[in-house]
Write a structure and sequence with these properties.
Blueprint (H helix, E strand, L loop, with lengths): L29 H12 L5 H10 L7 H19 L4 E11 L2 E9 L4 E6 L4 H8 L5 E4 L11 E4 L1 H12 L4 H17 L9 H18 L5 H11 L6 H4 L8 H5 L1
Parallel strand pairs: 1-4, 4-5
Antiparallel strand pairs: 1-2, 2-3
Helix pairs in contact: 1-3, 5-6, 5-8, 6-7
Length: 255
């Protein structure tokens, strides 16, 4: 018999019962792929330390190219899972890469946070992040995602911060508008765990409408803020109708 296989690999004897070997899986499995993604992504470890770790601890030699392919598979899986979620929390922040300003976008929900680095902050970058996803979007409603027409929910934390800043202004009229808006918006957050009665809800809506009516036509920051509240009116209390939705987009900011 002539062995034509590599040392240490069983040979196949023609015509014998041992002529067929069991199928041996090739490539790297999901657990190793997930481990590489966890080390590189969550812990920020470089490719070469990952290569050393896999070879020394796991006895699995990996080339740098193979590591990069594992990371690409993890990113693809995370993007797919994020774009299948019924609710997503989206945020973006500036990020410098080789002294050039980029934008880091994140799309997060309960089980996954998918990030994407883009050279600009635009509707094109936003579309590249979400692709064909059309679920319920929780955002600040003040950027390129403000035209989201599917299912929007405005982050209450951002509105509260704006109202607090207005309440601290030196102008008495601006401060009065900010204090009024701050009080009403802060009443919304506890409703996530203690839903209001019909009477409480009608009273709150009436107060907010009076606030908007009183300041709507002003050309200053008070007018601009209440007009923003008016635009976001239908998306302020989505979390009350859908318990799985959080009042703020803090999940995305933490991610």
């Amino acid at each position: 018999m002539v062995c034509c296989m590599k040392p240490g690999v069983p040979c196949v004897r023609s015509g014998s019962r041992r002529s067929s070997l069991p199928s041996i899986p090739r490539g790297y499995g999901p657990r190793l792929t997930a481990l590489v993604g966890e080390i590189a992504g969550t812990h920020g470890t470089g490719r070469r330390p990952i290569q050393t770790l896999c070879a020394a601890v796991l006895q699995v030699p990996l080339s740098l190219g193979a590591i990069q392919k594992r990371l690409a598979r993890v990113a693809q899986a995370m993007a797919s899972q994020a774009r299948q979620a019924p609710v997503n929390y989206i945020d973006d922040t500036s990020w410098f890469l080789t002294n050039t300003r980029h934008w880091l976008w994140v799309m997060a929900h309960e089980t996954v946070a998918f990030s994407m680095l883009q050279p600009h902050r635009s509707t094109i970058a936003f579309a590249a992040l979400i692709e064909a996803w059309a679920g319920l979007l929780v955002s600040d409603g003040d950027g390129v995602d403000q035209a989201w027409m599917a299912q929007p929910h405005t982050c209450l934390a951002h509105l509260i911060r704006t109202a607090r800043g207005l309440a601290e202004r030196a102008s008495p009229e601006l401060a009065a508008c900010g204090a009024w808006a701050l009080a009403e918006l802060q009443r919304l957050c506890p409703l996530a765990t203690a839903p209001p009665t019909g009477g409480e809800w009608r009273a709150w809506s009436a107060r907010l409408c009076r606030l908007i009516d009183q300041y709507h036509d002003r050309p200053d920051d008070a007018g601009r803020f209440v007009r923003r509240l008016l635009r976001a009116m239908d998306s302020l209390w989505v979390f009350l109708a859908q318990p799985e939705v959080e009042p703020t987009k803090n999940r995305a900011e933490r991610a």
